[in-house]
Amino acid sequence: MSSTRTFRVSSSGIHAAALIEAAAILRTGGLVAFPTETVYGLGAHALNAAAVQRVFASKGRPSSDPLIVHLYDRSSLPLVAAEIMPLVDRLSNAFWPGPLTLILPRVAAVPSIVSAGRDTIAVRVPAHPIARELLYVAGMPIAAPSANRFGHTSPTTAAHVLADLDGRIDCVLDGGPTPIGVESTVLDLTTEPPTVLRPGGVSVEQLREAIGVVEVAMRSAPEANGFRSPGLLERHYAPEAELWLGIGAPEAVRAWMREQTHAAHAAGRRAALLVADEDAAQLADLGADIEALGAADDLDGVARRLYAALRALDQRRPDVIFARDFGEAGLALAIRDRLTRAASGRVVWV
Ligand code: TXA
Ligand code: MG
Question: Which of 146, 160, 172, 202 has the most ligand 1 atoms within 8 A of CB, as the residue to mutate?
């Protein structure tokens, strides 16, 4: 593929031509990146094995890591899922369209490459208006992982998509920055009780309120290797620089950052800090590169800015990044999960 076309669909109104063209690309086995409410996805016709193969190739994603199938609505579920348990209706009523992915038994009509040979399928109904219009016009289930090169942070803007995949995909629908900024929550309904395999846009608290007991297959950060979802063990969401995550009381984390930054500078290494606004004010004197994610109690804002901030920091080529944690309530658990993986295990409880 020589060049990737960009269709701007952010301003309200005339998207019809772009969507019809994007749908035609999908129908003929091509690849279309599009915004969802979480991050940009890299879409292919989910029932076309050759198209799905192209998704893996363009991302450099190992074929052992299964994709999420996106549907226009709940009523299309029998196209991909062989068994629809009673829990599905409670969850879909509460959270679809939205950032919740369900793992269900797969029907044979979905090529096994989509789910990396597993007999289950990941499926969600996204809420973003452009994703919905695309699903509606294309009239097919769309398999879409996040639209980044394997191992990179997920894209929250069309520019991020192009930075990773320009020339490797057919087109990107530029719908502006994505509103949630971290990926969907992945909930496995083939286990009893259901298990969260990846925390995300729907919180564990919200799930428990809707359906009762839910297990979380994610250990506390010191031994954060307990992910059951394939592909979750690899170094993920990772910047080029070495990233350390500090977990603890805000004052203790700031003291740790101070100490570490002095030590890094003394060793001739360039340090950068990924913090909340209130930390930035207090650490400004350190002379480190600082990326502030917003007020620490505005978790929506922190999640929305997280990946763009990681990419921005990385471009300034620090040797080491010290990041702060935001706790584990609500969206903070997803933020901790992504930062823990970006840290590849370099997590310090201070
Ligand atoms: O928000 C999102 O979920 C975004 C947007 C584009 O929808 N998509 C996304 O896809 O994050 P991806 O491929 O980057 O992550 C999908 C996750 C992976 O961790 C994968 O291992 C897991 O879902 N997954 C997919 N199918 C699965 C299955 N059958 N069993 C267990 N885990 C599965
Ligand atoms: Mg991904």
Answer: 146
109 phi and psi, to 5 degrees? -65, -20
231 lines ligand 1 (CB under 6 A): yes
**Ligand number nearest to the C-alpha of 195:** 1
Letter string b/e over residues 49-67, b meaning 16 or more CB atoms within 10 A of that residue's CB: bebbebbbebbebeeebbb
Write out pLDDT tens, residues 218-272.
654 444 443 444 444 445 677 788 999 999 999 999 999 999 999 999 999 999 9
CA 265-268-269 angle, 5° bins: 70
pLDDT tens, position by position, 123-174: 999 999 999 999 999 999 999 999 999 999 999 999 999 999 999 999 999 9
For ligand 1, atom 13: residue with the closest CA: 145
Query: What global pTM score does this model have?
Result: 0.95
Regarding the beta carbon of 103 and ligand 1, being less than 6 Å apart is answered yes
CA distances from 348 to 186, 192, 269 (A): 26, 33, 19
